[in-house]
Amino acid sequence: MNKRTSSIALSVLFLIAAVVPAIAEPPAPQNKLEPWQTDWKLYVAELGKDLQKGVDPGEGPHLKGKTVEFEGILREAFDPDKPDESLDVEMEPRQVSVMLKLFPLVDAAKAGERTAIFTVRKILVKPAVAARDGWKAIEKGSKVRFRGTIGDDAAVLATTSGPGQEPAGVVFLFLKSAEVILPK
């Protein structure tokens, strides 16, 4: 074999060595976030799609188990003596339309397909055990960027009206396994 032939053979071997692993190993899947997972306004709109149709957002795979990242104002500092309590994070107020029949104590037959507009102002955040030190460092009233997971109780509706009154209530949003995202 002459120098030219062996040089070509070596080049082909290097090319095969570089291409075969790329073909054999598919690229790792990228966990691309949907726009609503990092934008509070879009998240409330996405949540509202279910609530307006009379669907509990925590019951389906549409939102449940998804990770979200938002920024808000911490209303009460993390209390190390009560580590399992949720933290109240105030968010920019957003309105959402909710089918009244989703509220507890509301007669679904009487409520029918009627909806009401509610303003969502906060998220109750359950700090992850491994992230509690990060939450301890955030002072009451401080702006905080956080990441959490939507669980079964993504939205909890509480009735605020009594028997015989027009159905009314409050929408509570919850996240679990939340962690602080430190500024870069």
Summarize the structure in words:
24% of the residues lie in helices and 32% in strands. The chain is an alpha+beta fold and 184 residues long. The chain has a 5-stranded mixed beta barrel. The longest helix is centred in the N-terminal third of the chain and has 22 residues, at 3-24. 21% of the residues are buried.
List its traits.
4 helices, five-stranded mixed beta barrel, 184 residues, globular, 24% helix, single chain, alpha+beta
Distance between the termini: 58 Å
In one word, what is the shape? globular
The portion of residues assigned to helices is 10-25%
Q: What is the domain total for the residues?
A: 1
The radius of gyration over CA amounts to 25 Å
E-strand count: 6
User: Can you give the mean pLDDT?
Assistant: 76
Largest sheet: 5 strands, mixed, barrel
Helix and strand pattern:
HHEEHEHEEE
Strand content: 25-35%
Provide a brief overview of the structure.
The chain has helices at residues 3-24, 40-53, 108-111, 132-136, and strands at residues 67-74, 87-99, 115-127, 143-149, 155-159, 169-180.
Topology at a glance:
Elements: H1 3-24, H2 40-53, E1 67-74, E2 87-99, H3 108-111, E3 115-127, H4 132-136, E4 143-149, E5 155-159, E6 169-180
Parallel strand pairs: 3-6
Antiparallel strand pairs: 1-2, 1-4, 2-3, 4-6, 5-6
